[in-house]
Specification:
The complex is a heterodimer.
Chain A lengths: L3 H12 L23 H15 L14 H14 L1
Chain B lengths: L21 H8 L5 E5 L5 E6 H16 L8 E5 L4 H13 L2 E5 L8 H15 L3 E3 L5 H7 L7 E3 L1 H5 L16 E5 L11 E4 H15 L7 E4 L6 H14 L2 E5 L1 H6 L2 H9 L4 E4 L1 H10 L15 E4 L6 H11 L9 E6 L6 E4 L8 E5 H7 L13 E5 L3 E2 L4 E5 L12 E6 L6 E2 L3 H7 L6 E10 L2 E6 L5 E3 L2 E3 L1 H9 L9 E7 L5 E8 L5 H19 L4 E5 L14 H11 L11 H10 L3
Parallel strand pairs in B: 1-10, 3-4, 3-5, 5-6, 9-10, 9-11, 11-12, 12-13, 26-27
Antiparallel strand pairs in B: 1-2, 7-8, 8-20, 13-14, 14-17, 15-16, 18-19, 19-21, 21-22, 23-24, 25-26
The chains are: A mainly alpha, B alpha/beta.
Chain lengths: 82, 593
């Protein structure tokens, strides 16, 4: 079972290639507002997350995810439940 | 697991939607073997729902709903995830004499507040007696219904706890409504399109018999949302009413893994699927080198294209990339339609593919005339796709601004009349009157021209912005700008300008009193962030001095003039989305809009 910190680190590795101009990525950065991910990049990221962590991300978690940290928390929760 | 998809071949003679109501259509489909099938994002079948079982379950649920003693034609709001429950509820309403109202699900990150507001606006508009949301969306629905008078709302499981009553069900009849549809309209001012049974059945028959000419051996695949007209009417109701098996993939699953669309088409040798041009483009862009051969698209005979202005480049690339899979570009089927006409209005002839009319760009811009051109200079011509001819029952007129009917090759507004047209917008007589005349003519707001019996669309409803196949209403963007304390009502105009990839770039021009750079930047960021989270698009924002937004001769703010000015004064090769203040300021300072 992965810890939140491990998940966060892996998640940041997935996000980094999508935002080549961003400096250090931190958990409080907003995916859309700070990092500028458009809806298609978000969909790509979700697919990579599903493959990397072998989870299904339910549709209903998206409205409550704003930051990198929010997303890591959701993945952590989903993994815990499984 | 272990579920088996419903077969393509049926044991019943195919009846192409020749029924008088949706309930009657399902009654017939239930006598055969076909049905619908739901797949997860990895392309695995998770539930097969033969029409026979759909009917059985819908009848049970209808008896539970009957126990709530609702007035006939009461609305039932349904949060429309792509799943078997939605279909069960939709048809339970048909049997119980209630009107289903499909509502959207959210896809954007951080959209919680905006989604709840959108749902609430729709619920206030359709005034449902009951509402259903899938388990995962129940809390959003519950927030959205707070303080509204809704008799009963819950998840499918909650509804399944209700007692069945033994009354005789009275399904919706031909002169009654079939559903309300919120697919079009601004999110702040939603309009519920009222479609009667007779209207939707007329349209389904048109689609099945004349548009795609359904025949035994046909099978459909769809990833279109059930709350959109093409997803609901085209790919859910048409298959039921024609006893065709269909394979569904969730819309978000498609957006994440677009190649699953091709996987499903291959797996069950599907013959029919529809999508906006953007869907084909997404799929082609995600294709890996050498991968096309893995798919078998040789059975795909109808690749419907609709829902936005059709540009051929992306579709040509799709056809080329998938030729090794046996995809035939003659399968492309351009069509034109809208929720206000149930769905479909015109179809190109089957097998024709994308046929374009090449016209002189100057005559088009200055004289509103589509004059054929043989120029090979890209700048001198515009290309429009042949959207085909009307389905039987429709009448069409192209009119100028003064209401005069125009001859062939003159561009004007498309007006339509026929049995598939809506009865109006629910409880909005004023807005209905603006678009639907006493004698039944619908002003579509779309611009186009005729050549013989063929329709070509050159533009769309004046002010609409289309981003990635989604309709964005400028009013929604202007409202968000006006919510900022420094901005007053009438200080903002939004419009779309042609973007680099054929879609629109969204532009918001805002009058601003502030001169301090840091404060201007802060305002830009706040508006941009609201637009992203509420509307889900990136937006170019330009701040201009007071009293510089253009007006019409009658003194109203003019989006079209602002748009023309913007296009005339900006170099589009330089424009990206989400510009910084540094990039947008000089343009604003250079001139008054």
């Amino acid at each position: 079972m992965k810890s939140y910190e491990e998940i966060l680190a892996e998640l940041i590795n997935l996000i980094r290639p999508m935002v080549p101009n961003a400096n250090e990525l931190s958990p409080d950065m907003e995916l859309v507002d700070n990092l500028g991910l458009d809806s298609m990049k978000v969909m790509n990221l979700l697919q990579e997350i599903e493959d990397q962590f072998d989870v299904s991300i339910p549709l209903n978690v998206l409205p409550d995810v704003r930051t990198v940290g929010d997303l890591a928390h959701k993945i952590h929760q989903i993994l815990e439940r499984e | 697991m272990g579920a088996q998809a419903t077969p393509t071949e049926n044991t019943l003679p195919l009846r192409p939607a020749d029924f008088s109501t949706l309930a009657e259509a399902l009654d017939y489909a239930a006598l055969g073997q076909t049905g619908c099938n739901f797949y997860n994002g990895r392309g695995e079948l998770y539930e097969a729902l033969p029409y026979a079982r759909l009917r059985e379950e819908a009848l049970i649920l209808a008896r539970r709903l009957a126990g709530l003693n609702l007035e006939r034609e009461s609305r039932v709001a349904l949060v429309a995830e792509t799943n078997p429950d939605f279909m069960r509820f939709f048809f339970a309403c048909q049997y119980a004499g209630l009107i289903p109202v499909p509502l959207p699900i959210p896809f954007s990150l951080g959209s919680h507040q905006a989604y709840v507001r959108q749902l609430r606006a729709m619920l206030k508009s359709c005034k449902p007696s009951i509402a259903m949301a899938p388990e995962g969306f129940a809390s959003f629905l519950s927030e959205a219904t707070e303080g509204l008078e809704i008799q009963y709302f819950g998840t499918p499981d909650d509804f399944d706890e209700l007692p069945e009553v033994g009354t005789d069900l009275q399904p919706l009849r031909s002169h009654e409504l079939a559903y309300l549809q919120y697919t079009s309209g601004s999110t702040r001012f939603p309009r519920g399109v009222m479609i009667k049974q007779a209207a939707v059945m007329d349209n389904l028959a048109g689609i099945a018999q004349h548009g795609v000419k359904l025949r035994p051996g046909d099978r459909a695949v769809s990833w279109l949302p059930f709350y959109h007209d093409m997803g609901l009417v085209g790919l859910m109701l048409t298959p039921v009413a024609s006893q065709v098996s269909v394979d569904y993939l969730g819309t978000r699953e498609f957006a994440m893994r677009p190649r699953q669309w091709l996987g499903l088409m291959s797996k069950n040798k599907a013959t029919i699927s529809f999508g906006p041009p953007f869907g084909y483009e997404l799929c082609q862009r995600r294709l890996r080198p050498g991968e096309a051969e893995k798919f078998d698209l040789s059975a795909w005979r109808v690749a419907g294209v609709g829902a936005e202005m059709i540009r051929t480049e992306a579709l040509d690339r799709f056809a080329e990339a998938l030729a090794p899979a046996g995809f035939d570009k003659g399968a492309f089927l351009p069509c034109y339609g809208m929720a206000e006409c149930s769905l479909a209005v015109t179809f190109a002839p089957l097998g024709q593919g994308l046929k374009t009319d090449v016209v002189d760009a100057d005559r088009l811009a200055y004289d509103s005339l589509a004059v054929p051109s043989s120029s090979t200079v890209a700048k001198e011509v515009r290309k429009f796709v042949d959207c085909g001819h009307l389905l039987p029952g429709f009448e069409l007129k192209i009119k100028d601004d003064h209401g005069n009917e125009l001859p062939d090759r003159q561009i004007g507004t498309v007006y339509l009349r026929g049995p598939s047209v809506m009865s109006g917008y629910f409880e909005e007589p004023g807005i209905t009157q603006e678009v639907l005349s006493e004698d039944g003519w619908l002003n579509t707001g779309d611009l186009g021209y005729l050549v013989g019996d063929r329709l070509y669309l050159t533009g769309r409803e004046k002010d609409l912005i289309i981003v990635n196949g989604r309709n964005i209403w400028p009013q929604d963007l202007e409202y968000l700008a006006e919510q900022q304390p420094e901005v007053r009502p009438g200080d903002a105009l939004a419009f779309g300008v042609p973007g680099p990839n054929g879609g629109d770039l969204t532009v918001l021009v805002v009058q601003c009193r502030e001169t301090d750079d840091a404060k201007r930047k802060d305002l830009l960021n706040r508006i941009r962030s609201r637009v992203r989270s509420e509307v889900g698009v990136d937006c170019m924002i330009e701040l201009v001095p007071l009293h510089t937004l253009p007006r019409t001769s009658s003194g109203k703010l003019s989006r079209s003039k602002a748009r023309q000015n913007f296009i005339a004064t900006h170099d589009f090769s330089m424009i990206g989305v989400g510009n910084s203040e540094e990039q947008t300021r000089p343009a604003a300072d250079r001139r008054a809009i």
